[in-house]
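S.,

As promised, the magnesium ion run. Input:
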Amino acid sequence: MPSALRHLLFIVAPLLAVFAILPSVYENHLMLFNFVVFLILAQGVNVIYGFTGYLPFGYVGFFGGGAYGFAVMVMHLHASAPVAVVVAGLAGVALGLLLSPLLRLSGAYFAIANLAAALAVLHFVANPALETITRGPYGVSLTATFNPNAAYAAALVVLALTMGAVVFLKNSRFGLALQSVREDPVSAAMAGVSVVRMRVIAWLASALIAGLAGGVYAWYVSVFFPDNVFSGTFSIFAIVFALFGGVATIVGPIVGVLLLYGVYNLIGFTTPQYFQLIYGLLIMGLVLFLPAGLVSLATRRGWHVP
Amino acid sequence: MSPKSAPILEASGVVKRFGGFHALDGLNFHVAPGEILGLVGPNGSGKTTAINVISGLYAPDGGRVSFRGQSVGGMASHRLVHLGINRTFQVPKPFLSLTVRQNIEVALAYGRAASAPPAMASLLDAFHLSEVADRPARDLNNVQQKTLDLVRALSTGPQLLLLDELAAGLNPTELDWIAGRIKALAQAGMAIVVVEHLMGFIEQITDRVIVMNAGKEIFEGTLAVAVTVPQVVEVFLGGEHAA
Ligand SMILES: Nc1ncnc2c1ncn2[C@@H]1O[C@H](COP(=O)(O)OP(=O)(O)O)[C@@H](O)[C@H]1O
Ligand SMILES: [Mg+2]
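Predicted complex:
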């Protein structure tokens, strides 16, 4: 069996099945929805960071942009929710194109510039002068499309597409070429790889993923303010989850989300002080002992991790 | 001994500046298909910079680089690779966390070799990398990493191959072996530029040498003649003492 098919059958399908069934046996739907959203975002970070090495500290910019793309479509053009989600994804891509010059930077410079760019998008959207379009700082209320069950299903579709993209990257020459660019752009060019084109494609793909996630999020919650959908927590959580599990793998970000967001939900609300402590220790331990994520426990032993 | 065919690469008056410093200061040379050209000169004379300009890492600030009659100065590296130019690096640059096989696979897939490049298995075999094929490149020793650099270049089916101190650090057995490989490639029609400090190695494989100093050529001809030219001798002795 080709490994791509194996990955789809034994990783992606069970994950989707579990999250499709859980809402009927567990009543905290919002929490399940958030799990799905973070799975999508962590895999989106995986696409750009794991396969190209760009750390997107402002990843939430695409997410918030997608949420507002959805809102504008619904409020002003009375679009149906699925159409508005597609537009949310396109809004992410458009922002990605606008920000593509950032790819000339590298390392911390890229991360910081991306963070600043996300803040700029937030303040643009939240500008009172744009009240007639985005409602500015006053937030949006999208009662016309309110349907959490449908939004949850849409989130699963976006997760499926995202996982499909990661499986493709993991099993294709295209994904290998991206990784070669991450490893050494000069050598990648000498292997015949167009470094700039590769980076832009991965960047836009990860922007699309976050835009779609923002769209389904807007659909699900239906009432939100700029500070909600542009909250830096989305970027930080998505990055920490992806890195904790291990990027450039299919399972790493999944493991990261299930474990860390699980811990967060177990103790994060009831005893936030312990949560902060445990989180801090986990992250420090990770950086010190497992910089390549939990999956490196296996890869160090020479086991292959999909 | 030098082949009669028309040059595949011609550099004329090539200039490359770093700030106010002229790393290449009007460099001229050519190389023909099937020929092995030695590029020698003291440290800092611009040999690596010449290779970097020809392989598209830097755009020249003046002069002309033409490959198969086409002006290619300033063209992006991957496009030069597709045209048929490739190189190795003085300090090898493999994709460290990818396996040896994956390192080669990228070049085979994206190199757009004009004629079908050798198959993966025969490349691994010919360059003694079969045993480490599924290990990450960071596990390789320096000689193996240099070999992998060479195999990546060959996977793109180059017509012009630029080797930057490939032989440095090899033991005598390995030197003989790699010399044989390079000669075989030239015999198959590849134009090869060899940058090297080991004069024995240069003598063994090159048809002709260019001696560089301060960014331009000061001698062109066979190594046997080069060592009788006072200016060349002086540059080498002076260069070695200064270095
Ligand atoms: N990227 C660079 N920036 C600044 N100076 C450089 C750069 N690359 C090379 N040089 C300078 O150009 C000169 C030629 O270097 P190089 O081509 O590496 O010499 P060689 O390979 O003959 O030893 C040296 O003085 C070196 O310091
Ligand atoms: Mg050099």
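Strands of chain B lie at 9-18, 21-31, 36-40, 62-67, 70-71, 85-87, 160-164, 191-195, 208-213, 216-221. Residues 172-187 of chain B form the longest helix (16 residues).

- D.
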